[in-house]
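Q: Sequence in, structure out?
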Amino acid sequence: MQNNMKSDDSARLLDKANELETAINKYRNHLRKDYLSKVSKGSYNIQSGIVYNDIFSSLEKIGDHVINVSEALVPEHHLSKA
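A: Exactly. Output:
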């Protein structure tokens, strides 16, 4: 997002931002699957797991907001959503 704000070619950088957003989502899914596996094996305290889940869900939401800002910086993106 910071690079997009400094760049004249935000459309090109939006592709990179989307790649990073996809990677974040995949990692979130991996963490969630790993967490659920460990909970089912009794490796995690449920209360601790809830906090852990809230943390990585919140971080993923931050990533969503960042991609929204990056998309807003690309004028053509506004036209394609209208």
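The mean pLDDT is 77.
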